[in-house]
């Protein structure tokens, strides 16, 4: 008689860790370092493909870059000494590099060509080009990359963002540093506020709805005087969300994450989990360049409230939806996501890719243009699948595999290096059962 099938026990996570520096801050600090005369040392940033794209951009403008593990030194001649690049700038897969780079280059008035890989070429750029052109920037090409900037002086505009987008907002603010007059940007719904924190901008009162930010050339001088010579970049909350999801999805887990960026605009996923009843405690320890930094403790929570994401919450946690989908799979809890059409134009069609990955593990997924309904199986089934091309979905697949009922073969896991090169190592170091299910030894 055949032996009954027995599923392997689930692992759990335990330990204390400090995550690589936040990429959103990293992109902005790299670009702003190009404007300051002299050296700036950034510590703690990952050697991610996206950040390397921003480093290539400033190098093309004449900034000397010395990149070592955990330490990047940038030495700039100052914004007046930057030069036009000799060849097209390769933004690879980094939408942040492309969109913020458009704003910076338009402001500097330097002729340049921005290009990227096939995935980035397919992503929309016209909504960034539109306000920059209205400021006087001469941009040809589109609607996606490659785009050519011809140089020229800019004038200020008053612009209301049609969508909640930190990249769009930041591109206009960076261009506004060099424009003649006072540029005003109004956002009707909040988005990440790292750029305005670094520029030390304050919102101004208006009769119109929303939040209005003003920037002038005076803010450029303030920025150059305000940037220190060395910055320890706080840990990335988007990367932390994957660890939090694993801890909340695997019984008996307990994690402490130190030196984490606790910006309220980046805490939406954590706040959403707390509202559902997750056991988490955070404490701010200090402030760096206007950003709160502290520690987070998270432990497995047996019961959570229903999971639904939609409305104004979506722009604040859109990058965390793959991690939250993995959490739903590990806990066998349904997840509804609405009002998230932006997921369709991320590094991949992220709704379709989340569905593909979760279905491979046995889930039922109903899609619609701006969302999906995920119905997980009682336990993820063992799966063989291709993880790429989306780095966040690759990390999602590895989390789901932790709870699978057998060994999994996950190909293309190295695409996680786009944002979190050490993901597999960090996750494996916290597991209290080895090997990880995607690391089964070869026969």
Biggest sheet statistics: 4 strands, mixed
Strand content: 15-25%
- List the domain count as a whole number: 2
Helix content: 25-40%
**Quick check: average pLDDT?**
92
Distance from N terminus to C terminus (CA atoms, Å) equals: 26 Å
What count of helical segments does DSSP give?
15
**For the record, what is the CATH homologous superfamily label of the largest domain?**
Enolpyruvate transferase domain
Structural class: alpha/beta
Give the low-confidence spans. none
What is this structure, in a nutshell?
The protein has 443 residues and is of the alpha/beta class.
Write a concise keyword list for the protein shown above:
four-stranded mixed sheet, globular, single chain, UDP-n-acetylglucosamine1-carboxyvinyl-transferase, Chain, 2 domains, 443 residues, alpha/beta
What would you say this structure looks like, in words?
With about 450 residues, this protein is α/β, with parallel strands linked by helices. The protein has two domains: about 25-230, UDP-n-acetylglucosamine1-carboxyvinyl-transferase, Chain; about 235-430, Enolpyruvate transferase domain (UDP-n-acetylglucosamine1-carboxyvinyl-transferase, Chain), CATH 3.65.10. It has helices at about 25-35, 50-60, 95-110, 120, 125-135, 165-175, 195-200, 215-225, 235-250, 270-275, 315, 320-330, 350-360, 390-400, 425-430, and strands at about 15-20, 35-45, 65-70, 70-75, 90, 110-115, 140, 145-150, 160, 185, 205, 210-215, 230, 255-260, 280-290, 290-300, 305-310, 335, 365-370, 370-375, 385, 410. It is globular.
């Amino acid at each position: 008689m055949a032996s009954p099938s027995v599923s392997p026990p689930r692992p759990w996570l335990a330990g204390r860790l400090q995550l690589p520096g936040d990429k959103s801050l990293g992109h902005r600090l790299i670009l702003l370092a190009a404007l300051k005369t002299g050296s700036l040392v950034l510590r703690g940033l990952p050697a991610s493909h996206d950040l390397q794209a921003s480093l290539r951009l400033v190098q093309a403008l004449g900034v000397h870059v010395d990149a070592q593990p955990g330490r990047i030194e940038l030495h700039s001649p100052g914004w007046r000494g930057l030069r036009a690049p000799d060849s097209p700038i390769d933004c690879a897969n980094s939408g942040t590099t492309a969109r913020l780079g458009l704003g910076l280059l338009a402001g500097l008035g330097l002729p340049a060509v921005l290009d990227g890989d096939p995935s980035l070429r397919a992503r929309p750029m016209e909504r960034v080009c539109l306000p920059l052109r209205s400021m006087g920037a001469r941009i040809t090409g589109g609607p996606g990359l490659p785009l050519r900037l011809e140089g020229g002086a800019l004038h200020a505009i008053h612009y209301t963002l049609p969508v909640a987008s930190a990249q769009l907002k930041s591109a206009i603010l960076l261009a506004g540093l060099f424009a003649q007059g006072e540029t005003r940007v109004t956002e009707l719904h909040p988005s990440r506020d790292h750029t305005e924190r670094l520029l030390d901008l304050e919102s101004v009162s208006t009769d119109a709805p929303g939040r209005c930010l003003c920037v002038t050339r005076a803010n450029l001088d303030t920025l150059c005087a305000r940037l220190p010579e060395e910055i320890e970049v706080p840990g990335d909350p988007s990367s932390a969300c994957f660890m939090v999801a694993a801890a909340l999805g695997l019984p008996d887990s307990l994690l402490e994450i130190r030196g984490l960026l606790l910006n309220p605009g980046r805490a939406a996923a954590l706040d959403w989990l707390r509202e559902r009843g997750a056991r988490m405690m955070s404490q701010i320890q200090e402030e760096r360049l206007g950003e709160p930094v502290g520690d987070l403790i998270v432990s497995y929570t047996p019961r959570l409230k229903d999971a639904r994401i939609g409305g104004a919450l979506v722009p604040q946690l859109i990058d965390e939806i793959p991690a939250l989908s993995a959490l739903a799979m590990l806990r066998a809890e349904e997840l509804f996501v609405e009002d998230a059409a932006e997921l369709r134009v991320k590094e991949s069609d992220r709704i379709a890719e989340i569905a593909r990955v979760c279905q491979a593990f046995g889930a039922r997924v109903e899609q619609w243009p701006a969302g999906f309904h995920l119905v997980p199986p009682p336990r993820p089934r063992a799966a063989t699948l291709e993880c790429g091309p989306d780095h966040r979905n690759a990390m999602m697949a590895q989390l789901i595999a932790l709870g699978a009922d057998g060994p999994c073969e996950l190909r293309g896991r190295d695409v996680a290096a786009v944002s979190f090169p050490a993901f597999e190592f960090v996750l494996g170091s916290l597991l209290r059962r080895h090997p990880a299910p995607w690391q089964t030894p070869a026969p």
